[in-house]
Design brief:
Blueprint: E1 18-21, E2 24-27, E3 30-31, H1 32-38, H2 41-50, H3 56-68, H4 74-81, H5 90-102, H6 113-137, H7 152-161, H8 167-180, H9 187-196, H10 202-213, H11 221-232, H12 235-247, H13 267-280, H14 284-301, H15 307-317, H16 325-346
Antiparallel strand pairs: 1-2, 2-3
This protein binds acetyl coenzyme *A (ACO) and oxaloacetate ion.
Oxaloacetate ion binds next to loops.
Pathway: Carbohydrate metabolism; tricarboxylic acid cycle; isocitrate from oxaloacetate: step 1/2
GO cellular component, one term: cytosol
GO molecular function: citrate synthase activity
Length: about 375
């Protein structure tokens, strides 16, 4: 038995949710380019969960359900207030808060399909409220209650700032949510599936997935990209900074992908958004720096940017705190995690691969006093 490092190329599940074939990403067979241009995030959630686009009544119903379930128990707000707020990363806070939230769900351990769909709605609806509540509490502000008349993207931005967002921000944020919603068997989705394949509950699956998304080789990369842009500081500094990284064989965050070889199809949408939004906020320097970094990394390493690279300057332009970039990824990706969790339950088998043992053999136990 020999191991495939990082399970590269291993097909570990069948799915009808999303696919990456020849560098093209589809959700249920719809090209991501089509969805990014045309779909609302709520339509995408419906598509991922029910494998078809909703009609107007079904979409309205989903929106009503999301709005109706967006509030979180007061005990969860108090729990967040008890965190060591100055030192805690928002992804760690979200991981804890979602787990704590599960304690209040009376159906947490009801494994029926109907109960699992109801939990999916509740989790999808409440995740934005958790992230924005944390963000406000650490600034010494009270959380803002979700509005029933706002769509998902609008509500998130509203709860974050307490003011009604403009239509450009809502449109951009909606597109970012659509682009991040699902991605075949990425690390966090695989984590969720492994967890629930033991027939553990939905909250455990989502909590585990948040833990996997947090890492800088996965969802955590978007925050690291912004850190890099901040460190570089100017277009003039880009060349020496990047050349130095390449010379030292250091990874450049926001570049590379396990599956895409020619490039991540989501990156061009975020690049366009970054150009537009950074111009509007008078910070086109960030876009110019990003374009220069992309030119250097692709020409010297032939490694194209992934979804995380331009999303950093997009979220920055929307006025979002840099350490909230990955929680925002979770706010969108939870739709995919939940779709995969439901798909796993529907056709379950324990996920339990083998390991190639490379340790010592035939050792003899030596008593403690003799060691
Ligand atoms: C939403 C997402 O999760 S998208 C990915 C977000 N993560 C990042 O942006 C972090 C930076 N990127 C990376 O670390 C990697 O490209 C990953 C983790 C995304 C994919 O990793 P893998 O498929 O395991 O590729 P691996 O790390 O083995 O890289 C293959 C080669 O390309 C190089 N490489 C890959 N990515 C980068 C990068 N970002 N910068 C510089 N070199 C890179 C590696 O150094 C390696 O070179 P070598 O063969 O000379 O040693
Ligand atoms: O698929 C992956 O490995 C990572 C990724 O791009 C995503 O999760 O969106």
């Amino acid at each position: 038995m020999s191991a495939t490092k990082g399970l590269e190329g291993v097909v570990a599940a069948s799915t009808s949710i999303s696919s990456i074939i020849d560098d093209t990403l589809t959700y249920v067979g719809y090209d991501i380019d089509d969805l990014a241009e045309n779909a609302s995030f709520e339509e995408v959630v419906y598509l991922l969960w029910y494998r078809r686009l909703p009609n107007a009544i079904e979409l309205e119903d989903l929106k009503i359900q999301l709005a109706a379930n967006a509030s979180i128990p007061a005990a969860v707000v108090d729990h967040i207030k008890s965190y060591p707020i100055k030192q805690v990363h928002p992804m760690a806070a979200l991981r804890s808060a979602i787990s704590f939230l599960g304690l209040f769900d009376e159906e947490a351990d009801d494994q029926s399909e109907e109960a699992n769909f109801r939990k999916a709605i509740r989790i999808q609806a409440k995740i934005p409220t958790l992230v924005t509540a944390f963000s406000r509490i650490r600034k010494g502000l009270e959380p803002v209650a979700p509005r029933k008349d706002f769509g998902f993207a609008e509500n998130f931005l509203y709860m974050l700032t307490g003011s009604e967002p403009d239509s450009i921000a809502v449109e951009a944020f909606n597109k970012a949510l659509v682009l991040h919603a699902d991605h075949e068997l990425n690390a966090s989705t695989f984590t969720a599936r492994v967890c629930v394949a033991t027939l553990s509950d939905v909250y455990s699956g989502v909590t585990a997935a948040i833990g996997a998304l947090k890492g800088p080789l996965h969802g955590g990369a978007n925050e690291q990209v912004m850190k890099m842009l901040t460190e570089i500081g100017s277009v003039e500094n880009v060349e020496s900074y990047i050349n130095n990284k390449i010379a030292n064989k250091e990874k450049i965050m926001g570049f590379g992908h396990r599956v895409y070889r020619l490039g991540d199809p989501r990156a061009k949408h975020l690049r366009e958004m970054s150009e537009k939004l950074t111009k509007l906020t008078g910070e086109s320097k960030l876009y110019d720096m990003s374009v220069k970094i992309e030119a250097l990394v692709t020409s010297q390493k032939n490694i194209p940017p992934n979804v995380d690279f331009y999303s950093a300057s997009v979220y920055h332009s929307l006025g979002i705190d840099h350490d909230l970039f990955t929680p925002i990824f979770a706010v969108s990706r939870v739709s995919g995690w939940l779709a995969h969790i439901l798909e796993q339950y529907a056709n379950n088998r324990l996920i339990r691969p083998r390991a190639d043992y490379v340790g010592p053999n035939k050792q003899q136990y030596i008593k403690l006093e003799d060691r």
